[in-house]
Amino acid sequence: SQQGEEDPQALSIQEGENATMNCSYKTSINNLQWYRQNSGRGLVHLILIRSNEREKHSGRLRVTLDTSKKSSSLLITASRAADTASYFCAGSNYKLTFGKGTLLTVNP
Amino acid sequence: EAQVTQNPRYLITVTGKKLTVTCSQNMNHEYMSWYRQDPGLGLRQIYYSMNVEVTDKGDVPEGYKVSRKEKRNFPLILESPSPNQTSLYFCASSSPPALAGEDGEQFFGPGTRLTVL
């Protein structure tokens, strides 16, 4: 079963705009992770937020976690064409389970 | 350079012909895992290994075997491949989690695109 479900499935924005992706999960988690995948390549870890954290920043990335709503969001600020990729959330509870991803397209 | 390597990167084979996809990591990670990625289904875990000689089934283990005789290697074996195993396969590794019940950051290989005719 899918632990993470990303929303929207696809997002297209202009360079310089902010991109927000959401993730919902079903069961309790110990941490939630976000990964990025360029077309056909391996996933790259972006950020990990623990269940006792509400917000975390890393460069242009901001992740929030609301355990009461079982949801997380990933915000990419000042997007660049190079941010074009698929983004996956993954919930961890003794096992990491990935969602189906959001395809982000940043148009120059 | 810290990395996870997979071989081959691309493979076209026929139904029933046994094949092995190798995976190797140079980060001394204890945890290793295999995933398959299919359109509309996301990443699904096939098998994982918590340490040498310790392997366990993931969500979609049918038709696959693994072994973990050394810490750095975690090969994926398809004894009798079928067309429904046509997919993009990823190997991943990670260090032990900071807290019990957690999963740490996973490092992914570049992927193996398998086509079974």
Using brief descriptors, characterize the structure shown.
heterodimer; A: 108 residues; mainly beta; six-stranded mixed beta sheet; 0% helix; globular; B: 117 residues; seven-stranded mixed beta sheet; four-stranded antiparallel beta sheet; 11 strands; 49% strand
- Approximately how much helix is present in the residues of chain B? under 10%
- Mean of pLDDT of chain B: 92
Question: Quaternary status of these chains?
Answer: heterodimer
Shape of chain B: globular
Strand content of chain A: over 45%
How would you characterize the largest beta sheet of chain A? 6 strands, mixed
Description:
- The complex is a heterodimer of chains A (108) and B (117).
- Chain A has strands at 4-7, 10-14, 19-25, 31-37, 43-50, 55-58, 61-66, 71-76, 85-92, 96-98, 102-107.
- In chain A, the strands form two sheets. In chain A, strands 2, 4, 5, 9, 10 and 11 form a six-stranded mixed β-sheet that branches. Chain A has a five-stranded antiparallel β-sheet with strand order 1-3-8-7-6, with no helix packed on it.
- Chain A is an all-beta fold.
- Chain A starts with a strand and ends with a strand.
- The radius of gyration of chain A is 13 Å and the shape is globular.
- With 117 residues, chain B is mainly beta.
- Chain B is 0% helix and 49% strand.
- Chain B contains no helices and eleven strands.
- In chain B, strands 2, 4, 5, 6, 9, 10 and 11 form a seven-stranded mixed β-sheet that branches. A four-stranded antiparallel β-sheet of chain B has the order 1-3-8-7, with no helix packed on it.
- The interface between A and B is medium-sized, with 25 and 29 residues.
